[in-house]
Amino acid sequence: MAKKKCKSEIVTSQAKVETLYYTVGYVPNGGKRNAPPALHIKGNWLHHCGFFTGQPVTITAKNGQLIINAELLV
Description:
Helix content: under 10%
Domain Toxin SymE-like: 21-69
GO molecular function: hydrolase activity, acting on ester bonds; RNA binding
Largest sheet: 2 strands, antiparallel
Protein name: Type I addiction module toxin, SymE family
Strand order of the largest sheet: 1-2
Pfam families: SymE_toxin
Shape: elongated
Organism: Acerihabitans arboris
Structural class: mainly beta
Order of helices and strands: EEHEE
Strand content: 15-25%
């Protein structure tokens, strides 16, 4: 019997790296001063990067950076 050649490999899908530009806005607070800053992130690119509707995320904020990690759905 001939031996079969088996080769296992790990397949990962990675979205292409792209830079997107947003502007920090604010949340209306009834005309009071010092409205809190807000950032609304949306688009199909989130899905391509592994983020799905209803999926929990963790956000780490430090030194002018926001790092958003998708939590694994089990």
